[in-house]
Design a protein that fits this description.
Layout: H1 2-10, H2 20-33, H3 40-54, H4 62-76, H5 80-94
Helix pairs in contact: 2-3, 2-5
C-alpha cells in the first residue's frame, strides 16, 4: 500500500530511493513509537522527523544530540513511546487515591 502511494508522488521508482539509511530511519520510526501498537509507527515518524529539527540549534552537533536522545529513549522505554505512556497511565491509576472509608455504624467521625 505504501508503494502504491509513493509511486505517483515521485513518478519514478528506483532501488536507490530505499537505501540503507532510509531503511534504518523507517525501522527507527517503528521502534521509537512502539512496534506493538497500531499508532506506534505514526508517533515514531513524528518524533524521527521533528527531533532532528528541534535539535538544529546545536548547529554541527545536532546529530550527536539526536543520537544521544534516541539511545536514552531506547534505554528507558524499550517498548517505545506508546509503551511508556501505557506504563505511566497504569502507574497513575494504581496510585490514585481511594475515597475515604465510611465509618462503622455507632462511631463518631
Amino acid at each position: 500500500m505504501a508503494g502504491a502511494l509513493y509511486a505517483p508522488l515521485v513518478q519514478f521508482i528506483e532501488p536507490n530511493s530505499f537505501g540503507l539509511g532510509m531503511s534504518f530511519n523507517l525501522l527507527l520510526m517503528v521502534i521509537i513509537g512502539g512496534s506493538g501498537y497500531f499508532f506506534g509507527p505514526f508517533v515514531g515518524a513524528l518524533v524521527a522527523v521533528l527531533l532532528p529539527e528541534w535539535t538544529r540549534f546545536t548547529e554541527g552537533y545536532y546529530l550527536l544530540v539526536y543520537a544521544a536522545l534516541v539511545m536514552i529513549m531506547m534505554a528507558f522505554c524499550p517498548s517505545g513511546l506508546l509503551g511508556l505512556i501505557g506504563r505511566m497511565s497504569k502507574a497513575m491509576t494504581r496510585r490514585a487515591p481511594t475515597p475515604p472509608e465510611l465509618h462503622a455504624e455507632g462511631t463518631t467521625p
